[in-house]
Amino acid sequence: MALTHSHGVRERVRGGAGAGRYDREAMADPLHTIAHTLRDAFAAVTGLPAAEIDPVVRPSPRADAQANGALALAKQLDRNPRELAEAVVATGALASVCSAVEVAGPGFINLTFTARFLAEQLAAAAADPHLGVRPAEVVETAVVDYSAPNVAKEMHVGHLRTTVIGDALVRMLEFVGHTVVRENHVGDWGTPFGMLIEHVVDLGGVGETDLSDPGGFYKQARAKFDASDEFKARARERVTLLQGRDDDSTMAIWQQLVDQSADYFDIVYGRLGVLLRRNDIVGESFYQPYMPAMLARLETAGLLAESDGAKVVWVPGFTNREGEPLPLIVQARTGGFNYATSDLTCVIDRVERLHATLLVYVVGTPQSQHLQMVFEAARMLGVLVPPARAVHVNFGNVLGDDRKMLKSRSGEPAMLLDLVDGAIARGRAAVAERNTDLDEVERAELGAVIGIGALKYAELSSDRIKDYVFDWDRMLAFDGNTAPYLQYAHARICSIFRRADVDRASVRAVVPTLDEPQERALALQLLQFDAAVHDTLDKFSPHRLCTHLFDVAQAFTSFYEACPVLKDGYEATRESRLALCDLTARVLQLGLALLGIDVPERM
RNA sequence: GCUCCCGUAGCUCAGGGGAUAGAGCAACGGUUUCCUAAACCGCAGGUCGUAGGUUCGAUUCCUACCGGGGGCGCCA
């Protein structure tokens, strides 16, 4: 899946060392542009290689941007920071794009862009299907491991964040040009399947079970397992049969459980609106046949050791309760494989078969140590070596009011489908409450878009590392940093174009005028979309894009209040403002799409 | 015990080696003959957990401590 761009503005410039650089004239983000310009200016003034210089360009409350680089550089060179900043300004490098360049305080360079420069950058972004977002400098094959429910078990609140965050990352990675392999590492193997299969047998065998709602199935099997030694013994034997893979009846029942669960997962994913489908399932069973070879490789590499009868890898730097070295157990004393075996085999598969260079694990924080050990073992094996690397995209818990894991009324973890349906129902209620002139079908569709959007946005808009408190009212509020607020801003823009009876695409060649402060502020926000996307991907933190989109929406509503678009007396600015509206709507629509959230045209 | 993460406004959260730490909600005060008021504007609110250290400069980096949570051998 090669990235191709038909438009000329983002041609790769070949010949640099390592990653290709892009023609800086082509960049829509003025901060990015100015950073390059300043880097060269600093290089000229100091004599240092440009590659070693960071001009530290940031948005500024005092101007459009500020460059703080002079302070650190001056210290490094033992020069006066103010003089250095003034020397850089004196090069005149910024004259063509800035209307004001001032050195302030100890050596800050405050920059104000010319309206013309900003307007041209806006026009460039508007002409770009990617709205100014640069493609990745190095195109990679990325495997994103997310969601990972268990066969024959219900999906619950614990799967919400991994599914929503993973899906957003997949969309963004693809958008900037990476080849992305979605992998749903479902739990479809292991000792629990002994009891699950045996339970199916008790129920009358294949065809007599219905897993469309796995609710009590797992619990029934579990209860029998705990209560009956006889059942327990049968379950153990069944595990052996399963692992042998050649008992037809066992395999048929297992396959049935897997297939029915896949149907159920598809229902959940479909309703939630994520990309995962059954083709993305690569369960633990897939890796099972490759595990003996993996163990042999560990053996050959001299990494396999024995400890208390188990086969282990001693991974340096990890200790147990007693302060003794902690092993990564890859084969239990019983000879059985466990999740370390599976995960290590999986790393090898992703690197060697899929040729992935970026392995993304969207998995909860509690598995951090386990994953670090697996990654380290893979490094020791010489598999997970540059350019291949693994990233644990960890996340905190979804909490209820009581600050504990979100529960259903029965006290168990809230079921994912209940949360999804609850979001849709609340979205519909919100629409009905504000009743517009929509018919039933439209209202239902809109309710789902708003409800699901709110649910997902709540997951994505705060730092994934922290726990967050689930709150229906807050996520569905039309004020604040919520999906409905962003969707509303988009709907208002669509309304303007309906009223004007103007085709959106027709204003995309317009170079807007930016006379009002709200127009400038909006322009600056819109041009930072590129940086927001890349920043989000660098840190695998979708909340960064959320924050940016919220800033865009706020800048737009301020503009909307202050700058009439269609009203009488504003004919002179009409085209220009329509162009700003169009680009705003596109940034909101695209940005939310990258998060897996739809936008309505009317609300 | 060892180890990882978190601690920012009443609440929910951003931010991050630099200039007066930002939003939203709630509260208070305004705005609608006008493109969707599901909105906007204003006002108020914080010794950035505590104490040291590095630095010209720390809320940001380092150390210790306090508070909360996770993990620590044959489940995943």
Helix content: 40-55%
Let me know the largest β-sheet: 4 strands, antiparallel
Poorly predicted residue ranges: 1-25
Strand arrangement within the widest β-sheet reads 3-4-6-5
Average residue-wise pLDDT: 90
Q: What is the subunit organization of this protein?
A: single chain
Tell how many strands the DSSP assignment holds: 15
- Broad CATH class of the domain at 416-594: Mainly Alpha
CATH superfamily of the domain at 416-594: Isoleucyl-tRNA Synthetase, Domain 1
**CATH fold node name of the domain at 416-594:** Isoleucyl-tRNA Synthetase, Domain 1
Structural class: alpha/beta
Rg to the nearest angstrom? 28 Å
Q: So, CATH architecture of the domain at 416-594?
A: Orthogonal Bundle
Strand residues, percent = 5-15%
Enumerate how many helices there are, as a single number: 21
Assign an overall shape: globular
How far the N terminus sits from the C terminus, by CA atoms, comes to: 37 Å
Structural write-up:
- It is a single chain.
- The chain is of the alpha/beta class.
- Among the domains are: 8-113, Arginyl tRNA synthetase N-terminal domain (Gyrase A, domain 2); 416-594, Isoleucyl-tRNA Synthetase, Domain 1.
- The protein contains 21 helices and 15 strands.
- Helix 6 crosses helix 7 and helix 12 (339-353) crosses helix 13 (368-380).
- The longest helix has 25 residues, at 248-272.
- The chain is globular.
- The protein binds one RNA strand of 76 nucleotides through helix 2, strand 10, strand 11, helix 12 and helix 13.
List the helices and strands and how they pair.
Layout: E1 12-13, E2 21-22, H1 30-46, E3 57-59, E4 65-67, H2 69-77, H3 81-90, E5 98-104, E6 108-113, H4 115-126, E7 141-145, H5 160-175, E8 179-183, H6 192-203, H7 215-227, H8 229-244, H9 248-272, H10 284-287, H11 291-300, E9 304-307, E10 310-319, E11 325-331, H12 339-353, E12 358-362, H13 368-380, E13 389-393, E14 398-399, H14 416-433, H15 440-460, E15 468-469, H16 472-475, H17 483-500, H18 517-526, H19 529-539, H20 542-562, H21 571-594
Parallel strand pairs: 7-8, 7-12, 12-13, 14-15
Antiparallel strand pairs: 1-2, 3-4, 4-6, 5-6, 9-10, 10-11
The structure holds one RNA strand of 76 nucleotides.
